[in-house]
Amino acid sequence: MQIKSNQLNAQLTKHIPNVVLIFGDEPQQVIEAMDCVRHIAKANGFSERTSLTADSQFEWDSLFDATQTMSLFSDKQMIELHLPTGKPGVTGSKTLIALASQLHDDLLLVIHGPRIGKDVQNTKWFKTIAQCGLFVPCYPLSGQALQQWLTGLMQNAELNIEHECIQFIADACEGNMLAASQEVQKLVLLHGSERITLDMCRHAVVEQSRFNVFQLIDEVLRGDSDAIVRLLLRLEGEGVEPNVIIWSLLKEWQNLLQLQSLIQNQQPIQWQRFGIWPQRQPLYQAALQRLKPQQLDSIANELTSADKQFKSETTARPFIQLAHLCLLFTTQGATQISLQRA
Q1: Which residues contact 248 (CB under 8 A, 6 or more apart)?
Q2: Which of 141, 76, 137, 74 is nearest to 111 (CA)?
Q3: 45: helix, strand or coil
Q4: CA-based nearest residue to 103, from 139, 84, 131, 71
Q5: Are strands 107-113 and 77-82 parallel, antiparallel or unpaired?
Q6: Residues 42, 48, 53, CA angle at the centre, nearest 5°?
Q7: Closest of 150, 82, 74, 143 to residue 110, by C-alpha
Q8: Do residues 188 and 152 make contact, with C-beta atoms less than 8 angstroms apart?
Q9: Which terminus of the chain has a smaller tally of CB atoms within 10 A, N or C?
Q10: CA torsion sign, 33 to 39 to 41 to 46?
Q11: Contacts for 328 with CB less than 8 Å, ≥ 6 apart
Q12: Distance CA 233, CA 179 (A)
């Protein structure tokens, strides 16, 4: 069963399954999920813990051996298996499938690794082993979900803090939950039980967002004007090369143009041919519904002109021009959006 990371504690409190699968590239959520499993497992008698890493030198027989090794001091054991690539390979797949039929209530297998896509989730080994327990994907939170997570974090830390500070820390650390957790810990050390105001928070918190060009492109496709401008300002502050963004915009414009042509000719879209995986397809579908053929033509002219300009001469404020180009993909355009720094 697939659950969200914030549901893990409640699920384990009700019942400890034979397997817990934890995969994702959001380190803070992975850390919290692993700590949650370890804490509840230990409280329920799983005091023996073995950690294995399935790297290129790993002998999969050792996983079977670990399941057969009983401690003199504990009747229950937990085995943590780290898959560095998220994929066990041919031998590992066979081993995990065979192991699934031998799991029992005195053994808890925790498999963890980086983010995995549908290609892995649809494999026989994953489906077989996932039927024995819980699958917890760990991905970065944003918006209201991030603020709710921060609120819980601050309540656990017993911080006396103004509500506006939650929004401020969420904006400053969006895309980096580990940094957000560290900022909360910093506020505890600096101010303890003292009432923390927004000004105090601004002085203490360092902006640590890990935005990148791929996230910008997602917001361009989504058509979120405010998010686009916010991302561009931060990318400028991080020293991202403007030509990288121009190239990415040109690539996405070309994808949209070809997709639009297929739709107009009533031809099926082979998404994988464009390198567009299922989780990103709704972004392109939204952009195609929003943008008309004449708009794509106008965008092409603007992008081509800007690309030549950026390569041949120096632009005083290239990110202002980039904001204009990105906003052409939205319904508002650049006319109603402020490009001034906050």
Answers
A1: 213, 214, 216, 217
A2: 137
A3: coil
A4: 131
A5: parallel
A6: 105
A7: 82
A8: no
A9: C
A10: positive
A11: 295, 298, 299, 302, 334
A12: 19
Tokens encoding 201:
């928070």
* Helix, strand, coil abundance in the chain, percent, nearest 5: 60, 10, 30
pTM for this prediction: 0.62
**Cα distances (Å, whole numbers) of residue 224 to 4, 131, 159, 229, 331:** 25, 38, 33, 9, 9
Domains in the chain with CATH codes: 5-138 (3.40.50.300), 143-204 (1.10.8.60), 213-327 (1.20.272.10)
DSSP 8-class letter at 195: P
Number of H helices, E strands in the chain: 16, 5
Q: Is residue 73 predicted with pLDDT exceeding 60?
A: no
Nearest to 24 by CA among 37, 52, 5: 5
335 pLDDT higher than 60 = no
The pLDDT of residue 336 is: 44
Say if CB 305 and CB 294 are below 8 A apart. Answer: no
Rounded CA-CA distance 236/318 in Å is 9
Give the range among 13-17, 30-34, 288-292, 329-333 with minimum mean pLDDT.
329-333
The tokens of 281 are what?
């397809």
Amino acid sitting at position 249: L
Q: Which residue has the tokens 């105090």?
A: 200
Rounded CA separation 117/110 (Å)? 19
Residue carrying the six token digits 């081509």: 304
- The letter for the amino acid at 164 is E
Q: Cα angle vertex 182, ends 3, 147, to 5°?
A: 50
Identity (one letter) of the amino acid at 241? E
CA distance 18 to 109: 6
Alpha carbons 243 and 254: distance in angstroms, whole number: 16
Highest-scoring range by mean pLDDT, 38-42, 180-184, 185-189: 38-42
Q: Which two tokens stand for residue 125?
A: 């080994």
